[in-house]
Specification:
Blueprint lengths: L9 E2 L3 E2 L1 E9 L10 E8 L5 H15 L64 H20 L1
Antiparallel strand pairs: 1-2, 3-4
């Protein structure tokens, strides 16, 4: 598949750009060649302009079949810097988007929540009462830190 060999940009700060095929559908039966098909794809660009990465994806698809039509349904956004200046919290870079870029205002931006990011939104996501209680303390710490500044 052309997308397997696609070299999307990477950065030291944000790591690799990622391309996740979320869903593929097409055809009427397993033994009939599909007249059409589609796939939902999520792309996280770690550096550079969105248009550059989109062109790379379009070009890779056209190498497979000139008839391929690609529609980018979201304007998207580039990498998002999130504050991490409060002591006592583990930090990591993750390959996903969120709603922080759409929050208006000139204020600190923190992304925090209970549990592990490796379990979030998965079929095995779970939180114990103890983890929820720890999260309340973490939220308090973030709020007090913001109020002090």
């Amino acid at each position: 598949m052309a997308l397997d060999n696609l070299q999307l940009p990477r950065s030291v700060q944000y790591g690799n750009s990622t391309l996740n095929i979320e869903k593929m559908l097409g055809g009427d039966a397993f033994n009939v060649v599909a007249a059409s098909a589609y796939a939902d794809v999520y792309i996280r660009v770690a550096v550079g302009e969105r248009d550059t990465s989109q062109k790379m994806i379009v070009d890779a698809g056209k190498e497979v079949d000139e008839r391929l039509e690609l529609h980018f349904l979201s304007k998207g956004y580039g990498p998002v810097d999130i504050h991490h200046d409060v002591e006592g919290f583990e930090t990591t870079t993750v390959n996903y988007g969120g709603d922080i870029p759409w929050r208006a205002g000139k204020h600190k931006r923190y992304l925090y929540g209970p549990g592990s990011i490796l379990d979030a939104h998965s079929d095995h996501e779970h939180l114990s009462a103890e983890v929820m209680e720890e999260a309340v303390e973490g939220y308090k710490k973030l709020v007090w830190s913001a109020l002090e500044k």
